[in-house]
Amino acid sequence: MMLDDVRKTIKRYNLMDRGDKIVVAISGGPDSVCLLHVLHSLMSEFKLELFAAHLNHNFRGIDAQMDAQYVAKFCEELNIISFVKSMDVPKYAKEHGLSSEEAGRVLRYEFFDEVVEKVGANKIAVAHNQNDQAETVLMRLLRGTGIQGLTAIHHGRGRIIRPLLNVSRKEIEDYCLIHNLSPRTDETNLEPIYHRNKIRLELIPYIQGHYNPNIIESLAKTAEILKKDNDFMEEAAREAYRQVKIDSREGCLELSIEGINKLHHALQSRIFRLATEELVGKKEALEYKHINNIIELLQKNETGKKILLPMGIIVKTSYNKIIFTTEDRGEEEGFYYQISPEDSITIDEIKGKITTKVLMRSDIKTISRDKYIKYFDYHKVTKQLNVRSRREGDRFWPLGLVGSKKLKDFFIDYKIDREKRNEIPLICDGDEIMWVVGYRISENYKVNNETTKILAIEYKTFLEEE
């Protein structure tokens, strides 16, 4: 019966393909021994190639060594290649300020990855079961979490698969008994010395005895239901994230404050986590308090304000943008304003004003030589006209040169002091620079014999007006 259930789980969640090479994590306890034996039974059906990986954590002295010996012997009986490694987990935990459980998990998965690379495997199978799922839901509920946290353990994520996640610990123990597997018992699992052990040995039995005898199944079912809801919300959040993202480059991304403010709060928090994921590769870096800090910053929307978050993340606001970055150069805040073809706007950051007009080419007798008044081919402007400060990675094609160059190199050529570069306005067509104000226009927007309409742009400082 259990073999059929595992087979259904594998197919339902698409955990395995024919011909997979799988590293199976095995401690020697009932769960992992059952997992390896079940997968071994399915080898022919799925054309699997299995490898076993066992890490001695050095917590339990001679007992841990006997676990390793048991694993090696068990794998030999099944004709499965095993990899056994011993590491000083207590020492690692102390050196890195981690709990014993956290340190063990980090080193286990590092070891599994080593074995994967060595044998050319494409998946890692671990033995989490239905009881583990229930315990995780309770742990997170007691700690405080959202829907995503309550989805708890997933059947598959990346190359990690969990074929036993729908199987109860009782079924696993019965399976081991029926097949005379004689797994090892870690005595520390029977002592309420860890948070998870206390939930397993004290809280769950109490709930079973006083409130719900089927609490394990109920909690596992709850996680499954919430996972479907979470998947839907995550898909909606990713679509909203694509819409509000203005710009993205290495170490920095910008989101539209106006766009975010239109969204439901549930999507806002997910968008912040998606931004964090894109920036540092880990959206779990943000806790509930960090999300609230970002929302508070967003509501104030004061240019130049910033907050510091985990993993070196800096979040700051700049007019219509909220910026997530890992770079803090101490430069002045940038600016960005949209412009209409017939417009006049004030830029307080640089104490200047931009004026635009559309003229007929036939009405222009001479092209302006004023370095603060420039003419452009109106029909070549195809995107949102704007004025902004420089950004990392900016390029443009200076009039008269062959090809584009980095704006940074252009500033160097003109010997413009570093602290002055943020003060130079850039007139842009979308992201493309049309004019480095006061210096050079772009070859792509110059007026020629085919031009019929001209976009005239003038820049003035407040001092010039006075």
Automatic annotation (TrEMBL):
Its EC number is 6.3.4.19. GO terms for biological process: tRNA modification. Residues 385-457 form the Lysidine-tRNA(Ile) synthetase C-terminal domain. GO terms for cellular component: cytoplasm. GO terms for molecular function: ATP binding; tRNA(Ile)-lysidine synthase activity. ATP binds at S27, G28, G29, P30, D31, S32. InterPro entries: Lysidine-tRNA-synth_C, Phe-tRNA_synthase-like_B3/B4, Rossmann-like_a/b/a_fold, TilS/TtcA_N, tRNA_Ile_lys_synt, tRNA_Ile_lys_synt_N, tRNA_Ile_lys_synt_subst-bd. SMART domains: TilS_C (SM00977). SUPFAM superfamilies: Adenine nucleotide alpha hydrolases-like, MesJ substrate recognition domain-like, PheT/TilS domain. It is found in: Cytoplasm. Transmembrane segments: none annotated. Belongs to the tRNA(Ile)-lysidine synthase family. PANTHER family: TRNA(ILE)-LYSIDINE SYNTHASE-RELATED. Ligates lysine onto the cytidine present at position 34 of the AUA codon-specific tRNA(Ile) that contains the anticodon CAU, in an ATP-dependent manner. Cytidine is converted to lysidine, thus changing the amino acid specificity of the tRNA from methionine to isoleucine. The N-terminal region contains the highly conserved SGGXDS motif, predicted to be a P-loop motif involved in ATP binding. This is tRNA(Ile)-lysidine synthase. It comes from Anaerovirgula multivorans. The lineage of its organism: Bacteria, Bacillati, Bacillota, Clostridia, Peptostreptococcales.
